[in-house]
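agent: user wants the full assembly modeled, not chains individually. Plan: 1) parse entity lines 2) check alphabet per entity 3) run joint structure prediction 4) return tokens. Steps 1-2 passed, two entities, 873 residues total. Proceeding.
--- entities ---
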Amino acid sequence: MGTASATLQPQVGEDRIHYLNTSYGIKSWLLTTDHKRIAWLYLITTSFFFVVGGVSAAMMRLNLISPQGALVEPDTYNKLFTIHGLVMIFFFLAPAVPTVLGNFLIPLMIGARDVAFPRLNLLSWYIFVGAGALLLYSVAAGGVDTGWTFYTPLSTTYLNSHVVSAALAVFISGFSSILTGLNFIVTIHKMRAPGLTWFRLPLFIWAMYASSIIFVLAMPVIAITMVLLVLERLFHVGIFDPALGGDPILFEHLFWFFGHPEVYILILPSMGVISELVAAFSRRRVFGYAFVAFSSFSIAIISFLVWGHHMFVSGESLYSGIFFSAMSMLVAVPSAVKVFNWTATLYKGSVSYQAPMLYALGFIGLFTIGGLTGIFLATLALDQTLHDTYFVIAHFHYVMVGGAIMGYTGGLHYWWPKMTGRMYSDYWARLAALIIFVGFNLTFGPQFILGFLGMPRRYATYPPNFQILNVMSSAGASILAIGYLLPLIYLTYSLKYGPAAGPNPWKAKGLEWETPSPPPTHNFEHTPIVTEEAYAYGSGNTGAVTPSAS
Amino acid sequence: MALLLPYFLKEASSMAPDLDRLMWFEIGISVFFTALIFVLLFYFAIKYRRRSEDEIPPQIDGSLPFEIGWTVIPAIIMAVMFVWGVELFIRNARPPGDAVHVYVVGKQWMWKLQHPEGPREINTLHIPVGEPIELIMTSEDVIHDFSVPAFRVKMDVLPDRYTTLWFKATKTGEFHLYCDQYCGTLHSKMRGFVDVMSRDAYAQWLSGGMHHTESMAASGAKLYEQYGCITCHGTGKAPPFVGLYGSSVRLEGGQTVTADDAYIRQSILDPSSQIVLGYKPIMPTFQGQISEDQILEVIAYIKSLAGTPGAQGALPAPAKETK
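--- prediction returned ---
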């Protein structure tokens, strides 16, 4: 790849055929097997679900302005937090990074023409859409108020809402995730370009691989749990409800055996994104590459052995509690290793603060807080105080929103020029990152204190002494909402009016930057041959075309 | 920090100060590491900011000593927290033998509380200060959770089994009581107060004329006749209740179980599951005929007949009965 002179502005690609202009019409999108187009299908559907989940959160925060509930009846509030949880976890957080960024980037990063099973990839999307439609039906038909955790016997015997359709939606969405995970595992094993050995892989690929394994192992558990739940609810087969001879604790075990690996499905892919961002915007190989790669695997494995920390106060035996407390502490170590390595990557780097890097720095800071507060909950004696309070809410939103969504948004900003061929306004993007950071901390910071004070989660109404902190949190949420609306505007605007990005606007390393933006349908004109390690910024082979000033 | 202090709860139980010490330790560690990461990020990001567009910084692959350092140090700190947390948890798990029992039945959406002396309450629990109280809890419907933040305790309340929770209040006053496990429509209204009274005030409250003051054991004795238990258990056709509570019972098939609350409850609701050695399986089930409150009264009655204290292997320890 030659070096273009500064006077020669890169073209967006009207002059050549790429994956976006190779064919037109709705059919060419709905029947596509191109991983890049499927990524767009997922981007649109998951963004839609993000809005659904966000609106329900906004309504919850509005309601909590007043101790008596400012907006809705308790039943409606219960439905709001159920929808918020179900939509955000199963239809936004879990799929977002893997199906949008993973789909788009895995083949590009490993120098392949597509994923291993392109048609299966499209099928995953249709299953996902079907599951989402079923969930929306449950909402439209009157809602569901089980909480995303579906605890029995409340869900199987006592509630009169649309539990069965919501449970089936979760059941179906699981298959989409399993197929995606399977597809990625095979792709990463079998389709790497010549010379691209495991230890030359970008860390994003390692993270995607680790989370794909969790997808494949954990999703069947939630699927079968949902089937059992539906069997009990519809046909009164006694599995979980003691009145029918079942055991409600069994449900908790099954649910969290899936549920805790699930939260690592949500965070691991974003950790992979952060490794890419930190390397690109420091122009440095990620400090301790092998440690960061293996830490993803340690997390994936240990994540299957920590589920009991959700049940310290459920009547679990003391010895189980001790075991799960120890394992939960252990899983924090690889997370700490990652944070330290990312931070060390900046040392003596060449650090630029373009928008994606601001999101990455935000991730590292907020994930640190989210991770450390997790240790409180893993500590047996302290969980007895903090369990099921707002402390838990604050903790996992620091990990999920401050971590997972920050990483996703950062990744989207980083690869947007690759996906679209155009740059967005860096000014507005940095402003949005700042607003999100401030709004986020104002929303969830006070919730730690609410938790220390003992305010229980899932409360539609609360004693008046909690009001000030709740109002602060709601005010923060409105700032956060503005922060999330901004990218919607300037990214959409850039689709038509953004300046051309060129193949490598960040002068970053990685195979995805060595093909034009947007990439051709088959990704690479010639199959690349890899001769160096990932992030080889010192090798001198920058191989980049000068970008336009954005 | 001073600004935050009013936001921290009163320490109103004997275990609260110990737990808070661990809490502050973890808060301190968290603040230290958060500050460390933020300072390093800002410092590096500014000191090593990009000076020219084509700058390529020196490449550093990593450092084994550093990797070992930031693996081992966090692991050691977490081991301290783990051991400390387990030690406190174990110490707080066992109630002292002389704890006063109070019975809790959760139902959508209220707390029904009953003292062995007889008084029944809804959503407000009166207890004396300075005395260990052990709650024996069950639910009539879904899973609830009994939580008193000022005491730093909580425990799920499950249908079809007993869970226990104990505390010793150290301050008088009213403290919030919450249901912490989502239980349906009015979950957020399933809250009340624990009213901690001085011993004198409590004694006065107990003997106050506002409750029916028949003790739980006495109510249980009535049920013993009313439900016809007496026809077998009083005649030798079925195991007698005197000295039963807390004793070891040999079952058909050779198993030995301790006659605790859970055993008695199960024997009432599902008698054929635990046939006492040497007796015939003739008892009918009382499932659906006897309420959770009544079962607790029957248990209180059987407890009052425990007679020989110090029965082998009793768990929980035999209750100290009504003075």
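agent: reporting back. The domain at 33-240+247-539 of chain A is CATH 1.20.210.10 (Cytochrome C Oxidase; Chain A). Chain A is about 65% helix and 0% strand.
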